[in-house]
Amino acid sequence: MHLLTFAQSKQDLQYKAELEKIFKQVHFIYLPKWMSALKCLAALWSLWPLQVLYFRSAAMRRKVKEVVSDNKFDAVHVQHLRMSPYLAHYKEIPRILDLPDAFSLYWQRRKIIKRNIFSKFFQAIEQSRLLRFEKIIKEYNLSLVCSPEDLDYLRALHKADNLRLLPNGVDLSVFYPRAHDYTHNNTILFTGNMDYAPNIDAVIYFTREIFPLILKTHPEVKFIIAGQRPVAKVKELASQNIIVKGFIQDLAAEYNAASVVVAPLRFGAGTQNKVLEAMAMGMPVVTSNVGFKGLNIETGQGAILSTDTSSFANSVIELLSDVSFRQSVGQKGIAVIQQQFNWDNIAMQLENYFAGII
Questions:
Q1: Residue 86 has what DSSP assignment?
Q2: Each residue of 36-91: pLDDT tens digit?
Q3: Higher pLDDT, 118 or 79
Q4: Whole-prediction pTM value?
Q5: 3-class DSSP state for residue 303?
Q6: pLDDT digits (tens, 9 = 90+) for 286-336
Q7: What is d(CA 256, CA 307) in angstroms, rounded to the nearest whole number?
Q8: What is the largest CA-CA distance in the chain?
C-alpha cells in the first residue's frame, strides 16, 4: 500500500515515521490552513463547492500524476468527496471513492437552523454547488457510503448505479463491554468533536430545550460534553449541572462512567460513531433520526429513537428512572454491534469490493 495525503500543519508531518511502518511509501503534500483559506477567497466565483476548493492543490495533482506513473497499482482508494477530483479521470486504474456521507443531504438538513441572511445566502450557494459537483461519484468504478439512507438518497438524486454500502465500524478492541455499573443514574454523556457544526447545535439544543425537562425529575443529574476543540459557544454552556470536558484521553472509560448517552443531532448525514461506540460498550443511547437511521435496528435495541424535544426528554427520564431498562437496552446494543459493525467483517466487505472492480 502507498499513501498520498495532505498535511495541514507541521505537527501532521511527525506521523510519517509511524505511517511508514504500514505503507510502502508515504507522500505528504503540505497545505497549511491559511493557504487553503486564501484559495477559497480567490475562487469564490468558482462552480466548485468551497469545501472542495479548500483542498485544491497543483502540488497534489502533480504528485498524483508522478506516483501513478511510477507505479503499477491494482486499485486506488480515494477517501472523501474533497479528494475526488484528483483521481476522477484516471479511467485506466480501478478506483473506489469512499464517502463518509452524502454531503448534499447534510447541507439540506442544515436548513432547519436559524441563520442570518448572509449565512443563508452562503448555504444556498454551497448546497447548489454540491448538488452539481456530487455527480463526480459516477466517474468512479464504485462509490461507497456508510448509511442506507445516504445510499438511497444519492441513488435517487444522481441516478447513479455504482453506489454501494460500506458501514462504519467499531474497534472492538477498544470499545467493548466492561464491568459497567448500571445502578447509577446521575450522568448523561455527549461525545464528539466540539468544533463540528452538527455537534455544536446538538449540545446547545439539548441544554436549552431538553435538559431542563430532565432536571425537573432528576435535579442532580450532570450533562457531560466530552470532545476536543470546544468552541466558545460550547464552553459558555458550562454550569453547575453541565460540564464541558474538552479532549478525552480515554473515551471508552468516559462512556463506561455514564448512565445514558445522548445524540440529539438535528442535522448531519452518515452513521454516527458516537452511537456505535456507546452501543458497543453496552451503554443505552437516546438519539434523533440523524443518529438512528442506518443502524438497521428497532428502537430499543441499544438505541432509542426520539424525534422531538418532549419524547427525547421522556426517553432519557425513563432510562434514568429504571435500572433494569437501562441494562436491557444497553445489552441489546452489544449484540447489534458485534453482528453488524465489527471492523473485521467490514474490512472483508471492502476487500470484496476491490476484488470486484479489479
A1: G
A2: 888 777 766 778 888 888 899 999 999 999 999 999 999 999 999 999 999 999 99
A3: 79
A4: 0.78
A5: strand
A6: 999 877 777 878 899 999 999 899 999 999 999 999 999 999 999 999 999
A7: 26
A8: 66
pLDDT band at 243 (very low <50, low <70, confident <90, very high): very high
Contact of 203 with 228, CB cutoff 8 Å: no
Q: What whole-number distance in Å separates Cα of residue 202 and Cα of residue 206? A: 6
Closest listed residue to residue 203, CA positions, set 182, 231, 179: 231
Write out the three cell numbers for 227: 470532545
Q: What residues pair up with 304 in beta bridges, in sequence order?
A: 286
The rounded distance, in Å, linking the Cα atoms of 340 and 165 is 13
Per-residue cell: 350: 471492502
User: What's the start-to-end Cα distance of the chain, in Å?
Assistant: 15
Element (H, E) at 305: strand 303-305
DSSP for 163-224? Answer: EEE----B-TTTS------TT---EEEEES-TTSHHHHHHHHHIIIIIHHHHHHH-TT-EEE
Answer positive or negative: Cα dihedral of 85, 49, 160, 77.
positive
User: Which H or E run includes 114?
Assistant: none
- Give the amino acid at 155: R
**DSSP annotation of 300:** T
User: Residues in the chain, how many?
Assistant: 358
- Residues near 298 by Cβ (< 8 Å), separated by ≥ 6? none
All domains in the chain, ordered by first residue:
1-72 (no CATH), 74-169+342-358 (3.40.50.2000), 187-340 (3.40.50.2000)
Q: What is the DSSP string of 226-269?
A: E-SS--HHHHTT--SSEEEEE--S-HHHHHHH-SEEEE--SS--
Long-range contacts of 293-300 (CB under 8 A, 24+ apart): 293/147, 293/148, 293/149, 294/146, 294/147, 294/148, 294/149, 294/150, 294/167, 294/270, 295/271, 295/336, 296/148, 296/340, 297/336, 300/329, 300/332
Provide CB contacts within 8 A for 189, sequence distance 6+.
223, 224, 226, 254, 255, 257, 258, 260, 261, 262, 278, 283
pLDDT band at 156 (very low <50, low <70, confident <90, very high): confident
Residue 263: CB atoms within 10 A of its CB come to: 26
Q: Is 246:212 a contact under the CB 8 Å cutoff?
A: no
Q: CA–CA separation, 35 vs 166, rounded Å? A: 33
